[in-house]
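Subject: histidine kinase

B.,
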Amino acid sequence: MRRACRDLRPSVLDDLGLHAALEWLSDSSAERGVPCTFSCSGEPRPTSSEAEIAVFRIVQEALSNVWRHSQATQAWLHVAYLPDCLTVTVSDNGRGFAPEQVGTGREHGSQGGLGLLGMRERAALIGATLSIESAPGQGCVVRLSLPLQPEHEEAGQQER
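Prediction pasted inline below.
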């Protein structure tokens, strides 16, 4: 039961916040055999609890796909806090794939692509967009873009 509760909202989010939790995911990638370089631009800004969980889980699934499927030797996680959105990009130098052939959850006789489908659904639930760019032999880039309130609006709402 404790694990189920912890899995709903990973304690690392409460303990560290989204930015540090994503850096922790990146750091833990080396333990799975694929070093991941973390980078960030912009000033970290708070988001809703629901958005934090979804972003964390999407990145977790993207890195899990790198570890399990890509045969990559390197991954990258970049977080960008822009004035009106948060973008998170996970990329790798792996074998790549044809995105149109996976990710619908309807692959013939397999459970393949359910992770990609889940990532898309999580993104949609928080009003974000998710793009997946890949081709055989070309690695993969997963990009999440989450609209944020402009910083001046956030400051005004906090003063109320």
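The two ends are 39 Å apart (CA to CA).

T.
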